[in-house]
Write a sequence for this structure.
């Protein structure tokens, strides 16, 4: 250590670019296969939007695992709860949703999304305290407990809102598409992409530029060491868990608007998708989760266009392929 | 003792409970007349075997698989498609068995080998993803599986309800093909459960438990954990497919709702945990409690829900609605993981002491 002067910058870790290039390469490789450039652009925009939504939902799960080695099989419940809570705000203000003004629409959507995040975050607090705290450190019981929690949450939603599908129409100003030349890009997808990017950048900034983020990253890599330095990692974990739950709620609102409907079983469908993303990305890695989400969305969109039958199993094929390449996911951050 | 592989229930109450359950099941056609009772009894038999096979995975190796219904579904669909395509004869039954069982074992082998390559923690997630893909596949390949409608089929002559084997005049009971089918289901389920009991009490079963408690130590002792885990996976898949075959034979139907859906997976999970993990006997208890509740508690909830609605109570009618019974089971499930993780059997055996089972891996 003596040959390093105190003023020298710390040696930078080697950047691993291959996973970042993967979605770009995949997208470029699809141009000749799809043929028409305008279709390709539309599909790519769709993939980005879908990927961002999945990323928002999955980011919390991957951090929760990375930080505390907790497997949460009930993450989907936060998504469904978020979507249902949003209907509470959106239904009474249906008139404002129909209004043809972006600002009026957003003035209703933003509080709805915030309320959803608050409720799912609060639910996260309860779940962490009641379900996860007692079985901390035991994977088998974590899986059982959180699965039980998922059942209870889903059934409660059914009991409160009834089993029918609730329509959730898009605000008027977010309907339709931007038409540039012969490329049509749905407006809502642009918004979803922007929100997703904002969330990604915010998470990255917090993780890489703040002391809190430093502690979280350190905790992901070596929990005991951070604890030994005197930080209350349990409290940190609770914060991450609640944030992750709130993000899942936000993702739920966005997904419900994207599908224009809310149903308690949406959590089942999305849970599988999120798991695939988290596995592909490498448990605990935000960057991997981001790339994984885009990859999953790309495979779903391109695959659905080129070989519709394949779309049914495309996620599994993607997961198998990635894990054959990197058995611990794109970025292996945890030592576990 | 031989037949139980030297692993008796080890609790007087449990023994009594098991004897009552098994006798009641065996004598259902005579004790409880009517189609519903017989259906419930057959379902308990099938699920006891299915849950016991899941216990081999969850309880004895400590790995959580969400793909167990997939193997169950493979068994169901194999027999259904064979009987649907080849007509109601024994050759079709044989074909279904010969195709279904190896298919389930092969798929289990593939999943086992693949998920062993990746981090062990992924196992539960990978099985969930594979199972959901399989479910979608089964509902989409409608030319083969009948899609959402599933496949109804006829049984061979001997097993049909119309076939009277012993007429009523002889004993006062009519023994027909339906009752014969029931005893077929009962006997094969019992054989499978006894077989599993043999497996878990064999040296192989001991190694599985060693792996559950500490995989590295088991490996350090020289056991090939990869081989053991994969083997256990395949065995469990085989029994699950066997239970699927019985289920399809009993229902004369195979469809997504009765043999593949994710809710069956949750049911199995609930049954194992409530009955008691790593006991095998827990499967019988769990399946009995769960299915009796499913079949009879629901109607009681309907009455309670109506009463609450008439009394003008808010919220309660919705919470007590018969379709919401899973809510209460979910709560029961959480409570049982929380308060008695060894389930009914563990409780009866150790009088509340919390030993073994549910260890982290």
């Amino acid at each position: 250590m003596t040959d390093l002067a105190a003023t020298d910058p710390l040696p930078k870790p080697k950047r691993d670019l291959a996973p970042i290039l993967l979605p770009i390469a995949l997208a470029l490789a699809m141009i000749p296969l799809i043929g028409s450039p305008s279709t390709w652009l539309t599909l790519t925009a769709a993939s980005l939007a879908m990927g961002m939504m999945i990323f928002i939902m999955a980011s919390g799960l991957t951090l929760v695992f990375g930080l505390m080695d907790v497997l949460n099989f009930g993450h989907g419940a936060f998504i469904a709860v978020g979507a249902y809570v949003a209907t509470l705000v959106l239904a009474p203000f249906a008139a404002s949703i129909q209004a043809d003004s972006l600002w009026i629409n957003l003035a209703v959507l933003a509080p709805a999304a915030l309320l959803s995040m608050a409720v799912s975050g609060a639910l996260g607090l309860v779940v962490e305290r009641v379900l996860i705290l007692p079985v901390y450190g035991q994977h088998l019981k974590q899986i059982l407990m959180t699965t039980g929690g998922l059942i209870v949450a889903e059934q409660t939603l059914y009991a409160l809102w009834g089993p029918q599908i609730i329509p959730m129409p898009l605000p008027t100003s977010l309907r339709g598409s931007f038409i540039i030349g012969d490329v049509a890009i749905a407006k809502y997808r642009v918004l979803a992409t922007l929100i997703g990017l904002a969330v990604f950048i915010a998470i990255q900034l917090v993780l890489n530029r703040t002391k809190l983020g430093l502690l979280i990253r350190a905790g992901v890599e070596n929990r005991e060491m951070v604890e030994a330095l005197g930080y209350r990692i349990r409290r940190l974990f609770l914060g991450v868990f609640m944030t992750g739950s709130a993000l899942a709620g936000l993702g739920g609102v966005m997904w419900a608007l994207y599908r224009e409907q809310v149903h308690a079983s949406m959590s089942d469908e999305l849970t599988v998708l999120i798991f695939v993303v988290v596995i592909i990305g490498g448990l605990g890695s935000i960057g991997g989760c981001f790339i994984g989400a885009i990859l999953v969305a790309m495979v779903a969109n391109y695959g659905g266009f080129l070989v519709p039958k394949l779309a049914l199993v495309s996620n599994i094929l993607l997961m198998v392929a990635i894990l054959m390449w990197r058995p611990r996911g794109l970025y292996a951050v945890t030592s576990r | 003792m031989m037949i139980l592989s030297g692993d008796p229930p080890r609790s007087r109450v449990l023994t009594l409970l098991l004897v009552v359950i098994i006798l009641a099941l065996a004598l259902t056609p005579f004790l409880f007349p009517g189609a519903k009772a017989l259906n419930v009894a057959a379902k308990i038999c099938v699920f006891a075997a299915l849950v016991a096979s899941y216990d081999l995975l969850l309880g004895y190796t400590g790995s959580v698989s969400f793909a167990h219904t997939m193997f169950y579904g493979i068994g169901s669909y194999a027999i259904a498609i064979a009987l649907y395509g080849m007509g109601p004869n024994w050759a079709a039954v044989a074909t279904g068995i010969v195709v279904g069982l190896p298919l389930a074992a092969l798929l289990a082998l593939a999943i086992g080998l693949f998920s062993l390559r990746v981090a062990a923690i992924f196992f539960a997630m990978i099985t969930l993803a594979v199972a959901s893909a399989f479910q979608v596949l089964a509902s989409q390949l409608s030319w083969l599986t009948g899609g959402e409608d599933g496949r109804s089929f006829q049984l061979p002559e001997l097993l049909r309800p119309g076939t009277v084997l012993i007429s009523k005049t002889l004993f006062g009971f009519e023994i027909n093909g339906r009752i014969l089918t029931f005893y077929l289901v009962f006997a094969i389920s019992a054989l499978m459960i006894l077989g599993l009991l043999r497996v878990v009490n064999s040296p192989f079963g001991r190694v599985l438990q060693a792996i559950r408690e500490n995989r590295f130590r088991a490996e350090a002792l020289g056991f090939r954990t990869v081989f053991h885990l994969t083997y256990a996976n395949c065995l469990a898949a085989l029994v699950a497919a066997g239970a699927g075959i019985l289920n399809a034979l009993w229902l004369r139907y195979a469809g997504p709702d009765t043999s593949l859906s994710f809710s069956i997976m949750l049911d199995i999970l609930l049954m194992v945990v409530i009955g008691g993990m790593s006991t095998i006997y827990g499967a019988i208890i769990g399946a009995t409690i769960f299915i009796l509740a499913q079949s009879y508690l629901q109607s009681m909830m309907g009455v309670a829900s109506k009463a609450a609605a008439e009394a003008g109570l808010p919220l309660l009618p919705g919470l007590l609605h018969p379709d919401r019974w899973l809510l209460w089971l979910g709560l029961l499930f959480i409570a049982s993981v929380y308060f008695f993780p060894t389930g009914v059997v563990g409780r009866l055996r150790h009088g509340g002491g919390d030993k073994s089972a549910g260890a982290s891996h």
